[in-house]
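Q: Can I borrow your eye for a moment on a structure tokenisation matter? Would you mind producing a protein record, from residues through to fold? Write it directly below this note and I will take it from there.
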Amino acid sequence: MPRQETARWSVVVPYYNERDYLPAMLASLIAQTVRPLRLILVDNASTDGSADIARAMLAGADGVDAVFLHEPTPGQAAALERGIAQTSTEFTAICDADTLYPPDYLERVEALYDSKGLDVAAILATPLYDAPDSFGSRLRRLKMHIVPHILRGQCHTGGYAHTFRTAALKRAGGYSRKVWPHLRKDHELIHRIWKQGRVLHAPNLWCRASDRRSSVLQKRWTLFERILYHATPYALKHWYFYRFLGPRMAARAHDEVRLRERPWEQAGEGAAPLR
């Protein structure tokens, strides 16, 4: 009998009412050149038929082991906790429903893990908002070449662009509402991941992110808080998150469950297509 390959990758996709974005995103994952591939989809109590769309799209997808989970507790962190608990592969990628991933995304980051050493705990991609060869995209990649080397021990991308060695992710505790129930959970998690090994930012590893939330979320992360985050050395980051930022976000009721708010829908704006 031919030897059956073991998947090296689990991709965790939390989603809540994403029927407008999920098909394009899932198509980009089905097109990944890495096989076999374990895809863990966590429905965070959607009411728009997103779960049915996901099942229909992944039915019979060649080389894809699809796992469908339902997490009734509101909040992306709860959905991520549920999905990560199901991972057992060497690597884990976190992918958002409103983000597109080029076909060689996982293949390229896998090659980076294999070449950079076993002490690398996470590799973070560069989010692009325009065509990969546009001026804005080139500028973002240039920034990612420079900034992480100046502002060390920090996170410079969103969670939709994060990949991990699964063992390091689980040792760090993964996403946890008990540890961090606030916004900026991606930054807080990477703070814990740094204790497990090196975190690399990969300028030429990119994904096509949606900008629908950016203006809203920036208002929940004040300029002073952002500046202090970058100015605080890693040795004091524990104080920054758990003594400074956490209490401030709690006082403003900036719980990560607020990510479920969709002010663009309340304003009557439709979903912007992903291309």
User: Anything to note?
Assistant: Strands lie at 9-15, 37-43, 64-70, 91-94, 120-128, 162-165, 198-208.
